[in-house]
């Protein structure tokens, strides 16, 4: 390692002294102007990680659903997964080292992680459409180059497309071709094969309105349109030609405000969906004939997809196990429906894709979705091999079911949640099951719920257990929540410190919206009083 060169180049990406950032659930994320040094250093770190794993590592420059002025960066591990936790710590240490200490910290990490510095390194880089992203990705490249790592800059990509590239490269092309055309060809072919199996093809050109959050999803979906020659036509809104990224639009806006994005004209019963700013989340929605807005979130997406997969498994008569993974934010009705009606085992993990992903790997087929629309389906290698074999060996109806499962394996981006891939799976399932958006929505009724934020002096005073459903500290808070929850029917509430904002999040659900609101408010007050609230006490209706 040429530490003099590192020092020299680092000076061009100097760290503002005193600035402390944390590699959180989604990497580093803050105002774009504070990130130059972080980008350079993540370029360095990606080289070390690549040498250590003897694999290609990905670096994605994006801040997902955050405002346009923000940016962020995360590293992608060899199988297209989120960075391993021990390396998150290295990342935080490296990003926060003061300028003069940085080369020493870099050396220390490479010793601690037993990196063979003679090993070659390869890094792939992608970025979203933020005005700051291009320059920041150049800083990543500077970091990679100074450690003599090789790289490929893919330029504009959705986050899941970068994950896909990493996985393809590390599996010798087995998962797919590591090019943007390879991605489009793989998914579109699987989609068309799958939808060809529909007994009545119905409407040839089913149309879907897609709110692209004025982000990268618009560019990529527009490119992909040419590959999907049947079964679906998409109409893109908030495609970035006028509006601002994530401003009054996108999956996060629609989910948290429970209303349509700006720029979306909805006729009753029209299927619409929203991506987030880097196209790894998706939610659906429609207006009913009375003009009421209906949100179909990640929970209902998981339900639709897992019920379809379960039917196919029953058809082929194979006892592959299927599990659904959710977080505490999953609507109580979805959990009940999955467990009691569909008889599918459901597991709850902490918030953050890496936790769900990890749990889902325990099953032959693991379906995971956060309520916010981030999720995918994982097939174990054994399950995939079995299904491919059955698709050749079985006869008639059974063979057809096995082939459909095989198509789903190709269509779903198994590296992490992918709005484009999820959208295609959902559209295919709706066609194959002959379901309208209202029929899908009617699988179960969401329990009314409310999410609130509470400002406290130090959100880390709140610690939780049981997948964030129970508070451990501060003392007395969980008892207070229990007492409040008892006052309402069908009620549930939990609180947790946010991983992305300096606030405490409160979630409550109950038998009516009024009760959910009132419970959420009462729990917010308890947090305010017992966990060091600052500013004005929470008020009902705010
Ligand atoms: C990040 C996570 C997302 C999670 C959210 C929670 C990834 C890629 N993203 O955006 O899964 O739902 O944080 O935010 O893991 P919160 O901690 O502020 O509630
Ligand atoms: Zn995102």
UniProtKB/TrEMBL annotation:
Cofactor-binding details, from the entry? Binds 1 Mg(2+) ion per subunit.
**Its family?**
Belongs to the phosphohexose mutase family.
- What are the GO BP annotations of this UniProt entry? carbohydrate metabolic process; hemopoiesis; protein N-linked glycosylation; protein O-linked glycosylation; spermatogenesis; UDP-N-acetylglucosamine biosynthetic process
- The segment(s) forming the Phosphoacetylglucosamine mutase AMG1 domain are 178-283, 297-434
Task: Tell me the residue numbers annotated for binding substrate.
Answer: 370-372, 496-500, 505
**Catalytic activity line of the entry:** N-acetyl-alpha-D-glucosamine 1-phosphate = N-acetyl-D-glucosamine 6-phosphate
Q: Which UniProt keywords apply?
A: Acetylation, Carbohydrate metabolism, Coiled coil, Isomerase, Magnesium, Metal-binding, Phosphoprotein
Q: From the record, what ranges are coiled-coil?
A: 380-414
What is its biological role?
Catalyzes the conversion of GlcNAc-6-P into GlcNAc-1-P during the synthesis of uridine diphosphate/UDP-GlcNAc, a sugar nucleotide critical to multiple glycosylation pathways including protein N- and O-glycosylation.
**SUPFAM superfamilies, per the entry:** Phosphoglucomutase, C-terminal domain, Phosphoglucomutase, first 3 domains
Q: Which species expresses this protein natively?
A: Mustela putorius furo
Query: Which cofactors, if any, are listed as required?
Result: Mg(2+)
Any idea what this protein is called? Phosphoacetylglucosamine mutase
Please give the pathway this protein is involved in: Nucleotide-sugar biosynthesis; UDP-N-acetyl-alpha-D-glucosamine biosynthesis; N-acetyl-alpha-D-glucosamine 1-phosphate from alpha-D-glucosamine 6-phosphate (route I): step 2/2
- Active site annotation, chain numbering: 64 (phosphoserine intermediate)
Which parts of the sequence belong to the Alpha-D-phosphohexomutase alpha/beta/alpha domain? 51-100, 118-167
Q: Which InterPro entries does the UniProt entry name for this protein?
A: A-D-PHexomutase_a/b/a-I, A-D-PHexomutase_a/b/a-I/II/III, A-D-PHexomutase_C, A-D-PHexomutase_C_sf, A-D-PHexomutase_CS, AMG1_II, AMG1_III, PAGM
| EC id | 5.4.2.3
Provide the gene name from the record.
Answer: PGM3
> What are the protein's GO molecular function terms?
magnesium ion binding; phosphoacetylglucosamine mutase activity
Which positions does UniProt annotate for Mg(2+) binding?
64, 276, 278, 280
Tell me the enzyme class: isomerase
